[in-house]
UniProtKB/TrEMBL annotation:
Residues 40-154 form the Transposase DDE domain. InterPro entries: Tnp_DDE_dom (IPR025668). The lineage of its organism: Bacteria, Bacillati, Bacillota, Bacilli, Bacillales. It holds the Pfam family DDE_Tnp_1_6. It comes from Aquibacillus albus. This is Transposase DDE domain-containing protein.
Amino acid sequence: MPWFRKTENLWGNCSPSLSIEKGFLPKWKYIYNAEQDSYVCPEGQTLHYATTDRQGYRHYKSDSEKCMNCPLLAKCTKSKAITRHVWEGAKEQVRLNRLSNEGKWIYRMRKEKIERSFADSKELHGLRYCRLRGLQNVSEQALLTAACQNMKKIALHLSRGS
């Protein structure tokens, strides 16, 4: 999540997405140990770092010999491995921001501010369908629509001020 910078106190906001496979333990049941860069399963076994793939996911694998007699073996992971993205720390911070009181307030305000602007663009400014074809032409139409909306806001703001 490149837009999240802790030093600038920016708030990212993302929709919750949990992809839990039916019959398996969810990832949050495994505890991440940042100091040792490993995960600990609910039964107390350590999953050590193995490799990082090209998409930026770090793979943590368990010792198959230790897991043979585990009572949760059938509910464990499919491949006896857990993945963690290199930006997982930032993703977790964004999730905590979203669940805080201020984050919930910001998410509620989004309906009134952002979504309304898109609705106005579609209904009042013809952005529902593009009149021209091609990326350049569609970009120009979107920018002109945004410029029109901004001019309307400025005019409304100036009329209220006088």
